[in-house]
Amino acid sequence: MRHAAHLMLGSALVFAGCQPSSQQNSQVKAETPVAGQSDAPPLSEREVQTVSLASPDGRNKITLRDEGGMLRYTITRGGEEVIGDSRLGLLFANQYGLDKDLRILSFETAASDTTWEQPWGERRIVRDNHKELLIKAERVSPNLKFNIRVKAFNDGIGFRYEVPEQTGLGDVFITRELTDFNIGQETNSWTIPARMYNRYEYLYSEKPVGELQMVHTPATFEKENGIHLSIHEAALVDYSAMSLHQQREGVLRVDLTPRADGHLVKTQTPFKTPWRTVQIADEAIGLINSDLILNLNEPNKLGDVSWFTPGKYAGIWWEQHVKEGTWGNTDGPINHHAATTQATKDKMDFAAKHGLDGVLVEGWNVGWDGDWFNNGDVFSFTETYPDFDIEEVSRYGKEVGVRLIGHHETSGNISNYENQLEAAMDLMEANDVRVIKSGYVADAGDIKRVDENGIAQYEFHDSQAMVDHHLKVVKLAAEHKIAMNPHEPVKDTGLRRTYPNWVSREGARGQEFNAWGIPPNGPDHVLDLLYTRMLSGPMDYTAGAFDLRPNEMPVVAEDLQRNDYRSRIEHTLAKELSLFVAIYSPIQMVMDLERNYEARPDAFQFIKDVPTDWEESIALDGEVGDYAIIARKDRNSDDWYVAALTDADARKLIVDLSFLGEGTYEAQIYRDGPDADYETNPYDIVIETKDVTAADKLSLALGRSGGAAIRLKKS
Ligand code: NOJ
Ligand code: CA
User: Fold this and answer.
1) 518 pLDDT band (50/70/90 cuts)?
2) Which of 489, 487, 700, 665 has the alpha carbon at shortest distance from 577?
3) Whose CA is nearest to atom 3 of ligand 1?
4) How is domain 6-295 classified at the CATH fold level?
5) What is the pLDDT of residue 10?
6) Which of 385, 564, 611, 705 could be cross-linked to 559 through a Cys-Cys bond (beta carbons 3.0 to 4.6 Å apart)?
7) Contact, 411 vs 379, CB < 8 A?
């Protein structure tokens, strides 16, 4: 049922509740645009209009009002303030903006409770239960019409601006977005800095909001009353990404990444902004269990994507990172080109033997020699190195039942890539490639785009130009039945729902950092990721290190300190296994060298068994940055899998198995041994089995930066 109301002057508070209905997304009739006219009394005589919308369970409530000619909002949960008095608005170049002299004209509400199915994902069936509010508003003089659309869910609130086509507002250059989140300076936060050279690849900091400067989203918060929040955005399309910038103490304002031309967003009416989202949960795990970001994205536009199958892949990759091979093949005396035809076939044999689905090959194409980081102009996406025969490896892959996974490193030159895109995709499709990993290695602000006049412009990785670029690639890839996995990407905002061939991405510090001889990711990092970056969508973290001291310098016992290692993975072996369940991605890299897996067939068995596509996922217990227990049910069997993992503190965790179905399950447990400790004894692992039922609780003693990975096999 829809409910429409025109606010009468003098109305105090209107509660926009209504009965649930099965209608979804029905369009509200557009207002007829009238430029420069309004029946509004002077600002001083206008009474404040207030409209509220509550979630279906009534706990989350957003209230909007037009006080003093400004549009403002607050959010509460269970009556307690979550986001205090905060401003809304947009500023435009060379025009009046939606900042002042604003008033709410009318509103409509709707309710919807539906489910939809994911082709692949953390869960097959997603419930979308929300109330909706459309506020029609205007700037009185000069007259500009706009809407605020709000959806209230039990797991949070989303709202967006919609600016209709109207006289006097055609082409629009957005110069600022005035959306604030007044979250309070004492509120605790977990964030990474924004607009810094390394894009999203930073370790997370935990600190009070009052100490923040500019940070990326998703940003995670814990209020003093224990309520957890994540601020992010959904459906980032043809707009620039938002960061959060502290203005007055405790007030975070949307800060849109500028385009190379200095504007923030270039668009024309009608347009709508991405959803600004606040996920809200009583406990940290509630954020992981939320589907709000996906629910605010549009349904699948690609139709049948069954040509993409979730799975695991090996790769010619880690060898370059630990310097056992090179990407280029003419690098003089240090040359040891890793991506040869024979090396690929060997990797395919390994993958086939252990039931992996694909083999990624990096360094197959011309362009890597010399300073590839600074030389994105010379990458060819069709010319192979002479010692790599793409037809032959693709033929061999078919013979052994393993697909080639493509690789397109752009080194941040998107024009060079776009100029070759059709041909590049044709070549991949012709060689049976179904997934391409791409790369945008360049400092933030250094993505090269040659404009219509032939002038090089330099973009941030999350400017509107890059948002548009990624979608262009994803759409073209879909036409070739290819899925994309960009590294150094723009952040995820749930577009995998609309374009389910956008299967994974990097967008955070991944395993690779542990190979580079700089401070490694450390014991906390993946526990931070689970409650921050992972709320946005799948990550190609590339877990599964079995040699936890790659490239280790010879050390003596008394030197057992972090900085005495050129590179190390600061996890126990069992914790590395747990990441295959904890860090969701429909494609999971099995990243280590064959010899390291073959040395530990007992532990490798878990990686061979674990699926990458789930019927259901439940975060059972955890705290941001400290520990997590996550259970997932296989989409293709009755088996469940559980990950438990901890930061640098050893801890005992109890896994309540009441999520299991009826009957008995064989628990195949890969857990830290009694002496496991990421610094002194990371390989201490116990592999054991026991019969369990839904009535049992498993007690797990995790070592420092330890973990457990469990397969619960239906008997
Ligand atoms: C950075 C990516 O994250 C990494 O996985 C890749 O090997 C290099 N770029 C080269 O493309
Ligand atoms: Ca990277």
Assistant:
1) confident
2) 700
3) 487
4) Beta-galactosidase; Chain A, domain 5 (2.70.98)
5) 33
6) 564
7) yes
What residues form DSSP beta bridges with 277? 158, 232
Residue 78 corresponds to which tokens in the numbers above?
A: 């269970």
Q: Which fold does the domain 519-538+551-583+596-715 belong to in CATH?
A: TIM Barrel (3.20.20)
Listed residue (478, 442, 437) closest to 461, CA to CA: 442
What is the atom index within ligand 1 of the atom nearest the CA of 487?
3
Cα dist. 620→288, 304, 588, 644, 662 in Å?
10, 33, 22, 10, 19
Q: Which ligand is nearest to the CA of 437?
A: 1
Residue 686: its H or E element:
strand 685-692
Residue pair 352/393 in contact by the 8 Å Cβ criterion: no
For residue 704, the number of C-alpha atoms closer than 13 Å in the C-beta half-sphere is 11
Mutate to test the pocket of ligand 1, among 313, 360, 487 (most ligand atoms within 8 A of CB): 487
Please tell me whether the overall predicted TM-score, pTM, comes out greater than 0.90 for this model: yes
CB 328 within 8 A of CB 265: no
Q: For 312-321, 328-337, 342-351, which range has the lowest pLDDT when averaged over its residues?
A: 328-337
Q: Is 512 a catalytic residue?
A: yes
The residues near 469 (Cβ < 8 Å, ≥ 6 apart) are 414, 418, 449
* Cross-strand bridge partners of residue 63: 52, 74
Q: Which of 142-156, 186-200, 541-555 has the lowest mean pLDDT?
A: 541-555
| Lowest pLDDT segment from 17-21, 203-207, 357-361 | 17-21
Residue range 613-625: mean pLDDT, rounded: 98
Q: Note the residue count of the chain.
A: 715
State the distance from the centre of ligand 1 to the C-alpha of 200, rounded, in angstroms: 14
**Once rounded to an integer, what is the mean pLDDT over residues 281-303?**
98
The Cα 24–Cα 111 span in angstroms is 7
Instruction: Report helix angle 341-353 to 390-400, nearest 10.
Output: 20
Ligand 2 center from residue 438 Cα (angstroms):
10
Question: Ligand 1, from 373, 408, 435, 441: best to mutate by most atoms within 8 Å of Cβ?
Answer: 441
Among residues 162, 158, 110, 189, which one has the least CA distance to residue 294? Answer: 158
Select which of 512, 570, 576, 615 is catalytic.
512
Longest distance between any two alpha carbons in the chain, whole Å: 82
Ligand 1 centre from 150 Cα, in Å?
Answer: 39
- Beta strand 156-163 with 171-177 is unpaired
Given the structure tokens 């996922």, which residue do they identify?
617
CA of 510 to the centre of ligand 1 (A): 10
* For range 325-354, the mean pLDDT: 88
- Please state the three-class secondary structure of 504-552 as a single string: CCCCCCCHHHHHCCCCCCCCCHHHHHHHCHHHCCCCCCCCCCCCCCCCC
Atom of ligand 1 minimally distant from the CA of 506: 3
Specify the pLDDT at position 554: 46
DSSP per-residue codes, 129-174:
EEEEEEEEEEETTTTEEEEEEEEEETTEEEEEEEE--BTTBSEEEE
Question: What residues does ligand 1 touch, defined as CB less than 6 Å away?
Answer: 317, 362, 409, 439, 441, 487, 506, 512
Domain locations in the chain as residue ranges:
6-295, 519-538+551-583+596-715
Residue 521 burial (C-beta neighbours within 10 Å; 0-12, 13-18, 19+): buried
